[in-house]
Amino acid sequence: MQNKQIVLNSRPAGMPTTENFRIEDVEIPQPKDGEVLVRTLYLSVDPYMRGRMNDRKSYIAPFALNEVIVGGGVAEVVESRDENFRAGDIVTGMLGWRLYSVAKASELRKIDPKLAPVTTALGVLGVTGLTAYFGLIDICNPQAGETVVVSGAAGAVGMTVCQLAKIRGCRVVGIAGSDEKNSYLTNELNVDTTINYKTEKVREALAAACPNGVDVYFDNVGGEISDAVLLLINKGARISICGQISMYNLERLDVGLRPQPLLLINSATMKGFILTDYAPRFAEAITQLSKWLAEGKLKYAENIIEGFENTPRAFLGLFAGENLGKQLVKVAEDSRQ
Amino acid sequence: MQNKQIVLNSRPAGMPTTENFRIEDVEIPQPKDGEVLVRTLYLSVDPYMRGRMNDRKSYIAPFALNEVIVGGGVAEVVESRDENFRAGDIVTGMLGWRLYSVAKASELRKIDPKLAPVTTALGVLGVTGLTAYFGLIDICNPQAGETVVVSGAAGAVGMTVCQLAKIRGCRVVGIAGSDEKNSYLTNELNVDTTINYKTEKVREALAAACPNGVDVYFDNVGGEISDAVLLLINKGARISICGQISMYNLERLDVGLRPQPLLLINSATMKGFILTDYAPRFAEAITQLSKWLAEGKLKYAENIIEGFENTPRAFLGLFAGENLGKQLVKVAEDSRQ
Lengths: 337, 337
Fold this sequence. Notes:
- 2 copies of one chain form a homodimer.
- By secondary structure, chain A is of the alpha/beta class.
- Helices cover 25% and strands 28% of the residues of chain A.
- The first copy, chain A, contains 9 helices and 16 strands.
- In chain A, strands 3, 4, 5, 6, 7, 15 and 16 form a 7-stranded mixed sheet that branches.
- In chain A, α2 packs across α3 and α2 packs across α8.
- Chains A and B meet through β13, α7 and β14 of A and β13, α7 and β14 of B.
- β13 of chain A pairs antiparallel with β13 of chain B, so a sheet runs across the interface.
């Protein structure tokens, strides 16, 4: 057995490149009491991780230079020194980008591979689903008949949001970056109207797609796409700021349409959030999401790249809009297979 | 008795001028059943009225060209054809800019001149006080020890907000446009720190004034002052968008710092509102404000210009930052005097 890890080689200036990452050979660590040695099966790459690569204040601490990158993962227990886990268990938690890691048992959650594919723990039954759930249901509370616009609609969070809004009986308008993605949204997820922001004039297309204005906007992208949506908001609109992928690689704060006058004349609310704000309510949401998944009301898409060494490339692909649904890296087979 | 009215002569392009208004001689109207003829005593001029002078969508319908301007007023009943009012009563409501008006009785509220000066019905016990109350208490819910920043702090709403935040036990930082105004805020209203945005570098002065960041921002002005405040917000900050006086005279939507990334990383909320959103709760707020006023916890300032024909000039002065506190026009003495 050999171990490898991927560290932050340098901080990105603007758009990250493969040069910002470095792969290293390392020892396989030994678990202490209360710890577990795990073998990584899947790693999640997510846009928010770009923020941790800067050395500045954000909602979580920056990654340190020359230290391992940390993100969501699914792993198999190799050796346990905690009574709650044993070898062969499949677990999820925040893991280093490593083949083998030692984790505190208290920071891992066991998952049942019989209930759903283990990768759902990183997606629709994990951070992705929870983010969609609280960002839409809690902040926006969409009502039947309202118009809900989702940017980044074909990303993992976005497509879950689209479906939750459909479950609520809303008219859903999804904005994504390719006709292939939009076909998926329309044909598989029953999104009412889609807009391809790369080929259409977003302002005109949105105005046509939202004849009754916009009641709810779930914002994954920011920038000019958001400006176009904000110009159409209705009285009492709710705007959930989930991500600003168009901003993450900018070296300074962006300048654009000031939304304050539009919020004022429409008595509208705009709220940013991060998932950990809702930690006390995760169980409630997972129960609800699992039920919809079992009933077939909630679908998910995954884009899986094979090979640990391709993890940085999978991450970079997020910013090129390559992924339909959740972007994962398959690092290893589990031992059942 | 002779009647006069002031109508919208032309729509302002950018900053309004006296040319946008026209004074006319008109007949004194006759009240029908359920109506009341009143003689105007005071007129309120307010920044939001600028929005109604544009011919575009906002939270209330635009004023019509060549029609009388309508705003808050205090008047004395001359002749009543409604059982709830009689000659000599002092009333408040939305009145035309006229010496004599006919109003529906159902749209007037009787005020008791013995409880407080009648002008308070247009200020601290009227639209001004209600706006401050709901915009601060309901949207921001400030907690003892938090830092509250108020822009337009020496305006009628702003100075009430400052005092409500002090009643809540907050540290209050007021931003206004003259040292005279700031002295009033500090010496009369116990505001903790003030910033003169015309003579100080707002970003540096704010950073110095808010060593623990900003928890609540009550925004009357928008623009670059707001940008400076937003750069300092804390996790969980609440931002009440009450007014955007820096925007009202712009001919297109303004461009500047996009707040979305800052709301995201701080899980912060920004909400626009207009007072009518809270109409069902006005009585609750007036009761509370009257109590604080009686206890001496709430002070108010008025800037009263004499003479009906000076109403447009009083309105224009709002945008030059001339007024300390509530800007009113005294049209006539009441008949008790």
